[in-house]
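To: structure subgroup
Subject: Chain for Friday's discussion

All,

I'm putting the inputs and outputs inline so they're searchable in the archive.
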Amino acid sequence: MSQAKKKKAVKKTNARKILGGIFYIFFLSGLVFAGGIAGWLNGSEVIRETVLQGLTKKTPQKVFSDSNDGGDSLTVLILGCDKDLYYGGKQVIHSHARSDMMMVARVDFNRKMVGAISIPRDTLCEIPGYRRQKINAYHAIGGPELSKKAVEKLLPGVNIDRVAVLNFDAFVEIVDMLGGVELYVPKDMKYNDNAGNLHINLKKGRQHLNGTDALGFVRFRKGSNGGDSDFERQKRQKDLMLALKEKMIKNWTQATNVLDKTVDLSGKAFDNEEMASLVLFMKSVETEKIRMGQVPVVDIPGTYDLSVDGTKLDKALREFRVVPMSDSEYAQLSTK
């Protein structure tokens, strides 16, 4: 064999070795990656369902086809509840406590929009068979189903598909499972309620909040430096929601267990398929497509109670997209 042919053969052999080595590295990497993915998928029912829906292109309209809007949207009543405690916070009276936070969220799958409106807990409401009382009392009396009836009575045109009940211990646990969140605290927040076992002590500025601090961030109502306006509380709720959304998108390895835990802790309001569908949908929703507000209310003189301002209610329900509207109505709102 000539010298030129020998050199050519050596080069070809070396090239094969290099290519073979590269292939081997990729092959091993693939096995490791596939093993990691398999372990990841095996660790979460919701994540497995999310991947499946991503591959099959199953739409949320199909998943929630039994909703009041035929799958085009989903309306959820979200209740944040604490345990009822005797004074001093040492003994639980019962777990079906008054709902400290009440929010109606309407997820519009077609328009890729989320609208939400919160209901002040001191708002009076009367439903057949019950005396007129604060709307947050209905959960303690009859649980989620009675709360649903009260909210639908208070907000004409709102038809609730699901009720998700999340107690505050669960909220803290979920935020901690995500590793906390980065949020800007707009002012010093200091408040102590020994009876309700609520202690808030946050300093102004951007900081990393754990579950307990995040709960205080959204529950803060008053303090030595003055109470918050409804607008301020709504903004904090929205800021936290967006921060949690971004944290879950960026940290899927942390989010896997959180999603399964949320299914368990939300009172089984959603099954794995439904939770996966909502996760995929929320990833596609732009920040400007999220609207949040509050039911308009007025003070009742001589009391701490509130009543709905009927002259402004319909406008608020439409402004914050919690009732069905035609395309022309949406277009008209968007120009304002």
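Points worth raising on Friday:
Residues 17-42, 84-95 have pLDDT under 50 and may be disordered.
The first strand starts at residue 73 and ends at 81.

D.
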